[in-house]
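Example 4.3 (complexes with small molecules)
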Amino acid sequence: MQISHIKYFQVWIPIIAKWIHEEWSYAFPALTLTEIQRGLFGRMNETEMPITLVAHDERGVLGTASLKAKDMDSVPELTPWLSAVYINPEYRGQGVSKALIAEIEKLASVAGYPKLYAFNPISQGVFEKMGWRVLETIQVAGRNIGILVKDL
Ligand SMILES: CC(C)(COP(=O)(O)OP(=O)(O)OC[C@H]1O[C@@H](n2cnc3c(N)ncnc32)[C@H](O)[C@@H]1OP(=O)(O)O)[C@@H](O)C(=O)NCCC(=O)NCCS
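Answer. The structure with coenzyme A bound is encoded below.
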């Protein structure tokens, strides 16, 4: 498996945009599929946030994760964010998210940030397994969402 910047694999942007739209439309109902695609096509530099990575191998695109300066309007003081971690359902349970998250953590750490934030439905517990802790719980569209933090 390799991890690359999305600018080298723009051909996968439509599928990645669809994943993001389907998974997080509850949290960002105003964001259309077209706007997500446009945002990803605009994400072509490798050092300034937002940065989007893709995991891939000979099977194609396995998953994606991003590093963003802002993700949750309700907590504008927190930065930066591990955002939009999504693994192709066919390739889950193979350590792909672990690899992507480690790479995003490295980018944030190298940029000098002491902490990284993320949000996730509170019931999932995926991030906690990777050393993240819940900072606070908020309600988004009737769901309990955990705001998580990782010390880098
Ligand atoms: C959650 C998700 C990112 C996990 O991706 P994945 O590549 O299957 O995860 P990995 O194989 O790297 O597993 C990493 C760890 O999380 C655990 N894990 C994976 N999916 C899990 C789930 N749904 N619930 C609880 N733990 C889970 C694994 O057991 C593993 O722990 P371990 O190292 O102790 O064995 C993936 O299911 C997904 O894309 N879901 C939809 C989008 C989403 O919820 N994103 C996360 C919030 S931004």
